[in-house]
Amino acid sequence: LSISWIRKLLDMFVGCLEDFKVILLKNKGQTSKSPLDRFIDDFFERSVKALDICNAARDAIEKIRLWQKHLDIVLSALENRQRALSEGQFRRARKALMDLALMMLEERDSGSIFSNRNRSFGRHHSKKDQHQNSSGHSRSLSWSVSHSWSAAKQLQSISNNLIPPRASDVAATNGLAIPIFTISSVLMFVLWALVAAIPCQDRGLNVHFTIPRNFSWGTPFLSLYNRILEESKKRENRNANGLLKEICQVERCTRHMTDLVDSAQFPLTEEQRMEVEQGVQELTTVCDTFRNELDPLERQIREVFRKIMNCRTDGLDILSKPNDIE
Fold it and tell me: How far apart are CA 267 and CA 171, in angstroms?
């Protein structure tokens, strides 16, 4: 998992969501019929719950930005200025590394430190907007997550009753139960991968997917799922803040640089100086990635939030006016 891969995944999901909306529009005359109306309603309920994870993912990006500030202090202290590194520079780097280590440890042990700072990506709805929602969708759209909010529990809630449609349901819906199950599974996987990758509050990946073999997309889908799951079970990743490659690099580099700083004796030997330079180069690489990729990633998560909202709004409109002619 890397930031670039997550961005590709989000792009793919937005495309799938647009295709799903087209399918609804082309079959709007059938959307109010049972059991299709229930399947569509279930998907929109899942999509509402997905908004919390989008908000939590935005908070995770804020955490990574805060980590980056501490890494920048380390780089500023230890970058070679064509002069010998001093003990004062090492003390400054050591303090930044210790602060970062404590911050990351706190995140692993007690969950999000940003839970109360969560802001919505969407506009707040007026009372008129809320009144127009159907009674089945009148629940809060969860503009923020509380201290007790759990990404693991949210994923479990979204995955509840996400099972392949029965043959009778496929026949009763003229096959439309299949694309609804497909988009629901894709939504679930995207959210699950996002939680796996970044430091969401109370991360947990105990979600199981059931995909029939006759679904052409099932094999590559489950292959990705199993690869990510196996990665999460590796010893070095069990207590990680996220499976994102860049986060793993930060954790590894931080440990290595801390060891170097703690063991340094002055004046530095040539070997120690070269080790410090190598560590600085590794940190510089990951910090450059954060600087270049975090803002686009956040914009994509905002877009996913809006696309989910728009799809739900348009879908509810289709359900309420199934026989209207475009």
Answer: 79
Name the band, by pLDDT with cuts 50, 70 and 90, for residue 323. Answer: low
pLDDT per position as a tens digit, 270-296: 888 889 999 999 999 999 999 999 999
3-46 pLDDT per residue, tens = 999 999 999 999 999 999 999 989 988 888 889 999 999 999 99
CB 191 within 8 A of CB 158: yes
Report the alpha-carbon distance of residue 44 to residue 320 in Å, rounded: 14
Instruction: Report pLDDT digits (tens) over 79-99.
Output: 866 677 888 899 999 999 999
pLDDT score, position 305: 95
CA 220 to chain centroid, in Å, comes to 20
Structure tokens given for 259: 């060891």
| Distances, alpha carbon 216 to alpha carbons 93, 179, 191, 246, in Å | 52, 12, 21, 32
Averaged pLDDT, 241-263: 91
* Among 44, 68, 8, 40, CA closest to 290: 68
